[in-house]
Design brief:
heterodimer, A: 113 residues, mainly beta, 5-stranded mixed sheet, 0% helix, 46% strand, B: 114 residues, 7-stranded mixed sheet, globular
Chain lengths: 113, 114
């Protein structure tokens, strides 16, 4: 499985933007970049995903580097409810790995009031 | 749309006992995953089903863990006999087969083995 590298932890202040980086230098052409987050005592929840172009949804934005070797999850205005572990995951869309979803250690985001 | 349902939410057993977890995925989702999450770590995939067939169980400790998905819908994960190191949250997730679609997770079952 293609691997991702994320910082262990990050801090942010409430109502400020947060940029969560992810490196995936061995990404293949068929890998989608997925982001999930896990709030305390909850199962992971989907945040956003993309293939090549930047993506926006109601929760966040995903900026993908031109060479696709890195990406950044952007929370435009962090709230206390955004404090969670954020996982960057590569998901093979070719079907060869049967759409496997493999989690790493993620980034623990702390939001200060 | 109803989410992924798991039961029980919590379970405490003694080592060497057996335990079973149940998962009801979102209706129509062909792919079902079972994950084990030990405190402080990311979820680890134990087994993945496509309809009622196993497509990946490479990290399932088959000497003590078993899972089945009858009729391609509900699934059960069993541990027999349990060890202290099996204490973890067991998460079930489901997704459709469409390319790049998201997976939906249940709230998990927290297992404590004493």
């Amino acid at each position: 499985d293609a691997k991702t590298t994320q910082p262990n932890s990050m801090e942010s202040n409430e109502e400020e933007p947060v940029h969560l980086p992810c490196n995936h230098s061995t990404i293949s052409g068929t890998d989608y970049i997925h982001w999930y987050r896990q709030l305390p005592s909850q199962g992971p929840e989907y945040v956003i995903h993309g293939l090549t172009s930047n993506v926006n949804n109601r929760m966040a934005s995903l900026a993908i580097a031109e060479d696709r070797k890195s990406s950044t999850l952007i929370l435009h205005r962090a709230t206390l409810r955004d404090a969670a572990v954020y996982y960057c995951i590569l998901r093979d869309s070719s079907g060869g790995s049967n759409y496997k979803l493999t989690f790493g250690k993620g980034t623990l985001l702390t939001v200060n009031p | 749309e109803a989410g992924v349902a798991q039961s029980p939410r919590y379970k405490i057993i003694e080592k060497r006992q057996s335990v079973a977890f149940w998962c009801n995925p979102i209706s129509g989702h062909a792919t079902l995953y079972w994950y084990q999450q030990i405190l402080g770590q990311g979820p680890k995939l134990l087994i993945q089903f496509q309809n009622n067939g196993v497509v990946d169980d490479s990290q399932l400790p088959k000497d003590r863990f078993s899972a089945e998905r009858l009729k391609g819908v509900d699934s059960t994960l069993k541990i027999q006999p349990a060890k202290l190191e099996d204490s973890a949250v067991y998460l079930c997730a489901s997704s459709s087969r469409l390319l790049g679609t998201e997976a939906f997770f249940g709230q998990g079952t927290r297992l404590t083995v004493v």
